[in-house]
Structure formats: C-alpha cells, structure tokens
From TrEMBL:
Annotated coiled-coil segments of the chain: none
Pfam families associated with the record: Cellulase
GO terms, molecular function: hydrolase activity, hydrolyzing O-glycosyl compounds
Protein name (record): Fibronectin type III domain protein
Feature: compositional bias, Low complexity: 378-415
Stretches for region Disordered: 367-445
Gene3D superfamilies assigned to the protein according to its UniProt record, in alphabetical order: Glycosidases (3.20.20.80)
Domain Glycoside hydrolase family as annotated: residue spans: 45-307
GO biological process: polysaccharide catabolic process
Organism field: Halosimplex carlsbadense 2-9-1
C-alpha cells in the first residue's frame, strides 16, 4: 500500500480504508494464556473468524519494551529497556508467529512500538533530547524494519504515545505548539530514516500529548514517503475543548485538517462503563465517535482493546466474577479448570457500557468497504450474509479533559499445571515404506537447514519459546524441548486435497506426548490425541492423522503445534509427510 495525498491506495490504485482492533502484547498473552484462555495465535484466529461474524481488515499488535525486557507489568521500564538479544528472542518466540498468522488470515498487521510514560528531555524541560531513548527506539527499528520488509501486509507504527512535552500545556499559543512539534520532529525523524533505510512499509507517526495532537503535521510533516499520522482518544479527554472532533484544534485547523491533508489512523479509542476518569464511558461516546470515524475514507481505525484484561476491554474475563476480581488477577490466583485446555471462549461485552458488540457490528457493517484489490492482503472469504446494522450515531460526548491511563495490569501467571497424562503403549515401529507419491513437507536432513526457516516445499517454517530456543536439527531429526511452552509451524500453502493422511515420524522422551500437544491445521485446533488413534512412543514411530475425518481444510493449510497446555518433555520429529 502507499499514500496518495490523504488516501491509502493499493498498487492498482484502489482506495483502501482499514478498520480493526488492537490485541494485547503477544508475549503477555502467551505468558498468561491459561489465565486468559487463549494464546496470541488463537486470539488472531478468533478475531478473523468470518463464519462467526468477525471482519477486521487490520490488527494492531502492541510490542512493549516492558515485555521485551521482562520487567514487572505496569512498570515504566528504564531506558534502554532491553538489549538486542532480548529483542531477537521476543521476535522469534512471539511476534513472528503473529505477523505470519495475520498474513494467513488476510488482515493487515500494525507493529506498534508501544512505549509511553517517557521523558523526551534528558535534563528537564527545554534541555537536550534524551539520546538514550532515541538509541533504544532506533535499535528496535534497525532490527524490526528489515525483518518484515518483504511482508506487504505489515505497517510500522513508530512510537505509541510520546507523553512529554505536552502540547496541551498552553493550548492557546500557536508558537508553543510549533516549538513542541519541532522537538518531536528532531526526536523522531531519525527513526523514520532508519525504517526507510531498510523497508518501504507504510509508516504511522504518533504525536506529543499521548498521540492526541496529530494537527502538528499541518505545521510540518515528517520527511519521507508513505507516512500517515495517528490519533488516540478516550471519553475522559479530547484534543479539542469544543466537544467536536471535527473542529478539534490547538492551532486553528484541527484534526479535520489532518485527514484532509494526510491519512489519519485512529489506532486507539474505546470506552468501558465504570472504567474511571479517563476510559470510563458508554455508548454515548462510542456512537458519536463512530460518526467521526466514518467522515472520510482517509480515516482508518483500530479499537482498543480486543482482550479481557487490558482496558477498556471488549471481552468479559472468561469464567471470572468481574465484580469481585481485581484487574491484576482476574482469577484470584486460581486458574479455572475449564481453561486448562486452550482455547477457552470469550464473551463480548454488551449493553450501553460495553464496547465489544458495538465494535464487532461496525466491522461487519463496513466489511466490504475500502477492501484492497487482488494481490494484496485478502480477507477471509467465509463471509455470512449480515443481518442487523448498528444504530446510527447521534449524540456527542461530554468534553473530556485529561489524557487516559494506558492499560498495563495483567493477571498473575498461573502456577497450577494440568496433570501430565501417563504414557500408554508405544506404537509399533513402522515397517512399510512411505508411498512413492507421498508429499514430504520436511525430513530434517539439513537440506534445507532448519535455521533457514524453509521446509522441503520451500515454504516458511519456524519454532520458538522452547527450552532449546527455536529447536535444534540434529541426526536427521528436529529436537523440541518443552516445559509448558513452545510453538512449531511448517507451512504447506498449496491445495493438498488429493492427500488424505498427515503422517509424523516422531518419538518422545516420556511417551504419550500426544495428550500435551495442541494440533492446529486447516481450521481444526484441538489436542493431537483427538485427531489420531496413534500414540507417541519413546522410539521413532508413525503418528497418522486422517485429515478428511478430522475436518481439516486442505485447500492451503499449515501444520502447527502449540505446547502451552502443560507438561514437560522432548520430541524428536524426523519427518512430516502427506499420503
């Protein structure tokens, strides 16, 4: 995609308007997957399930320094918050799979460098810029930008919410606004340059005052091609003092002037009744803001947040008593038994104070509006016929004042593990030679090498979060050591309807590991033991999956394992093939 004036267009010149949702940081989701009831990939799958009425065209993925550097949730991490080794681990183990899943599901993915509560100055107001902060962000994009440069569905949001200095401090003085914006240009232009040295992906730029002041771009835009601007707002604040986003202004031109000049991405907004001073609100806010969001095809949006914990929430906390549970620990230290096998279902928030059902209905209403043409990110095709439309927005919200708190609190990571099943009889060692017409997905013979992230079909493969990192290829087998964590994926990406059986040549350190592995292929996501009659033994043997009987969509599948369900063992995988 590229910018053309104030519009976003695909390579064929079609006008594209993107709408969607935010998720929580993928590492935070994965670490708390049993408390949340889903891992990050399962969240993406749920939010892109058109058969269940979900139609986002874009998902914003916050990447938090606090999580990259493994600080306590809710803390403002120091600068720098992480080193390059920690960043590489985060990308390999958590972000790569989410970016790839968005591609598979046909949605655009915003990689959002989610820092906030920062200080732009090193030595107080009007002093020199904080070069440590500059270096941290520059290092992030120096690693991330080239990593996804070939992924046309990826957008880069340079910096979530620059908090200081605040452009609201003297909203009546145009010169103050110009001075603050100049400081922001000096601070952030090097990050834009770093991205552009590596990649042509669309860039999204925030603004001072918690990204509430995009109108600074009307004074001077950042230097570079294909740059759009972002805007955040919640019921408890408004960049205008006029109760009207259209006229929101600190320099006389307002937010309306921004989207008349450049694409505007509203990458955060939301409301939750009883949410407090900043995010607390009802559909009165949502309906009025919906009207603003659809003023122009130059406005794109992602609601915050498609999560049961990060507030304002779009989902109730699964199996929790919301009235009695704290934000930090929705289960009071006890993981519901129903969540021991992922995924658990989430319920949308509803009613005047819940935004979940509103956002979902808006996405359905505009599911065919601003869709890119062929050859770009293509949304899922299993789209049911819509029924009711959302209400037409009418009322305007009250004038808010201060900036919102950015949600940070997380539930405690559960400690109780599900029981590890007792291994059963080992399967007989196979004696038959595989059929001559079998399709070998990967035989782990080092050609191509596992580290190259390509299987024998030439498709992407990878793994992460294992005790041995991304797995080790040795002696003709891929070794995966897991301890209640890890994911593996190998793409096929072609129609394999002529094949009926998926075959793994595999052994386990304990035996019986099929009851600890979540199997994911062609829309079927369940424990491996539910789709095979075979058992993993301690010596190499076959585990066969009847794809047709399991209901697997064989039109363009990938094979994925997830090990977050509990248990500790080692698998050796010597071959995956289709027969």
């Amino acid at each position: 995609m590229h910018r053309d004036g104030n519009l976003i267009k695909d390579p064929d010149g079609n006008v594209v308007t993107l709408r969607g949702v935010n998720i929580a940081d993928p590492k935070r989701i994965n670490v708390t997957s049993q408390a949340r009831g889903k891992d990050a990939v399962q969240v993406i799958d749920m939010l892109t399930d058109a058969s269940n009425g979900w139609y986002p065209r874009m998902i914003r993925v916050p990447v938090q320094p606090v999580d990259i550097g493994e600080y306590e949730p809710g803390s403002g991490p120091p600068v720098p918050a992480f080193d390059e080794t920690q960043l590489e681990s985060y990308l390999t183990n958590h972000l790569d799979e989410v970016v790839e899943r968005c591609k598979e599901r046909g949605v655009y993915c915003i990689i959002d460098y989610h820092r906030h509560r920062d200080v732009m100055w090193a030595e107080g107001q009007n002093g020199p810029l904080n070069t440590d902060l500059q270096d941290e962000v520059d290092m992030f994009w120096d690693v991330v930008a080239p990593r996804y440069a070939e992924d046309s569905h990826v957008l880069y949001e340079v910096y979530n919410e620059p908090t200081e200095p605040g452009m609201w401090e003297d909203p009546t003085t145009t010169q103050w606004v110009a001075d603050i914006w100049d400081m922001w240009l000096d601070m952030a232009q090097p990050w834009v340059d770093t991205i552009r040295n590596h990649a042509d992906n669309l860039i999204l730029m925030g603004s001072p005052s918690w990204t509430q002041s995009p109108e600074g771009a009307l004074l001077e835009e950042f230097d570079g091609e294909d740059i759009a601007y972002t805007y955040h707002i919640y019921p408890g604040h408004n960049s205008s003092r006029n109760q009207d986003w259209e006229d929101a202004s600190r320099n006389g031109e307002g937010v309306a002037g921004v989207y008349e000049q450049a694409p505007l991405f509203v990458t955060e907004f939301g409301w939750e009744e009883g949410g407090g001073q900043y995010i607390g609100g009802t559909d009165e806010f949502g309906d009025a803001f919906h009207d603003f969001l659809e003023k122009s095809p130059a406005i794109h949006w992602t609601a915050w947040c498609a999560d049961p914990v990060w507030r304002p929430v779009m989902f109730d906390r699964p199996f929790a008593d919301n009235a009695n549970d704290s934000v930090g620990d929705p289960y009071n230290g006890t993981v519901p038994e129903a969540c021991s096998d992922l995924p658990c279902e989430w319920s949308l928030t509803t009613g005047s104070g819940g935004m979940g059902d509103d956002i979902k209905s808006w996405l359905e209403q505009y599911r065919n509006d601003g869709i890119p043409g062929e050859g770009t990110a293509t949304p899922p095709t299993d789209t049911p016929t819509p029924t009711d439309e959302p209400n037409t927005p009418t009322d305007e919200p009250n004038t808010p004042t201060d900036e919102p708190n950015t949600p940070t609190d997380e539930p405690n990571t559960p400690t109780d593990e599900p029981e590890t099943p007792t291994p059963t009889d080992e399967p007989d060692t196979p004696t038959d030679t595989p059929a001559a017409d079998a399709m070998v997905v990967d035989d782990y013979d080092g050609d191509p090498g596992w580290a190259s992230h390509r299987n024998d079909l030439g498709q992407w493969c990878g793994a992460g979060s294992f005790e041995n990192g991304g797995g080790e290829e040795t002696g003709g087998a891929l070794v995966l050591e897991y301890d209640n964590g890890g994911w593996y994926q190998s793409q096929i990406n072609q129609d394999v309807s002529d094949y009926s059986t998926l075959v793994f040549e595999v052994s386990g350190a304990n035996g019986g590991e099929e009851s600890e592995v979540l199997f994911d292929m062609g829309g079927v996501r369940t424990m491996l033991s539910n789709v095979t009659d075979d058992s993993i033994g301690t010596s190499m043997g076959e585990v066969r999956v009847d794809m047709e009987a399991a209901g697997i969509d064989r039109s363009s599948p990938s094979v994925r394992f997830n090990f977050w369900q509990g248990g500790s063992s080692t698998l050796e995988l010597s071959e995956i093939r289709l027969e």
